[in-house]
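Entry for the shared binder. Reason: the reviewer on the internal report wants the predicted structure included alongside the sequence.
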Amino acid sequence: MRRISIMVSAAVLTAGLAVPAAAHPGGADFGRATLTGFASLPAETFVAGSEPSGAAIGTGPFNGVAAPFAHQPVQGFSGVVNRRDGTFDVLSDNGYGNKANSADFLLRVHRIRPDLRGGTLKVLGGFDLSDPDRHVPFPLTRADRVLTGADFDVESIQRMPDGTYWIGDEFGPWLLHFSAKGRLLQAPIALDGVRAPENPYLNGAQPDIASSKGFEGLVRSVDGRHLYPLLEGTVTGDTPGDLRFSEFDLRRGKYTGKRYVYRLESTANAIGDAIAVDRHRFLVIERDGGQGDTAKFKRIYLADTRDRDGDGLMDKTLVADLLDIADPKGLGGFGETFRFPFQTIEDVNLVDDRTLAVLNDNNFPFSSGRTAGKADDNEFITIKLSAPLHADKRAFR
């Protein structure tokens, strides 16, 4: 892929129609992945001793769940960090779907431990995100400056060697840098030329990206020098279905001006997460908006910046179809074929060179992809790929 500072022009996609993206030239898509582990956390799991929430979503019931709630739900897994000790950090998003109904949802990172043999997830603790040092220049919802879903929509996360966290937001979109305990360390960092409808600095101007289409993916380079935030939606003026994959220099604290282009298989699709495999290759979740029986496209691609076919786009190789996973041991409890049929699949992580962890965002209490009419649990699965990725060893740090 040519490294450029402006979007590469390409033939305009026909809105809503699938447009095949090139697989890695000279290579073939991977074969069928196999389920190697399954665990779930019940939908109605709440943070002990926490504040009430859900007052603005109505009384429901929603998929059998009545609102509001006496506590904060453990939900919305929109980002994951593998701590390499059997535990994972998972990021809750803005709460209930938008600014207007999420002011009483506290943004939080949870620590979980999956028991893939027993099929359960244990919540070990976590921390809320806050801005006590007043780095956010615009008004926040709460006087104590604990951050809520009316302030930011946090969707992606990376943990750094010093224990701090970088988090990608959709309302700016912004990059946010937090301490190991969730304290904001500096002002939100904007992406030049991109503003969402929720951005407080529009000042009457038109946004150039759709609502909830900001930084859905956030990658840390294997050498630790850069972050690569990946937008979920197309910026106005770009080719429909093309997503900006920008480069941010951690040492300089600014964008370099370089970016790549990830093209969706359909303009109706969205990305869910991304993670580095090596210097050039990244795993990307691409999905449609369906759930349950209406889910038709839930895939993980290996995207390569080297652009071997010279079309100005990241090359794509299919590594796993999440709606067609072999389950010969019946680990998922649904026969020999396992489906991950959730509307929003927003977490992928490297366990080893052939094994991926994949998690869903259950949109509590609104999504019901596993069982119609029943609020989705938070599910954590591991899948073995049909071939090794030959990942850089630094990708497992």
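Summary line for the report: Confidence is low (pLDDT under 50) at residues 1-26.
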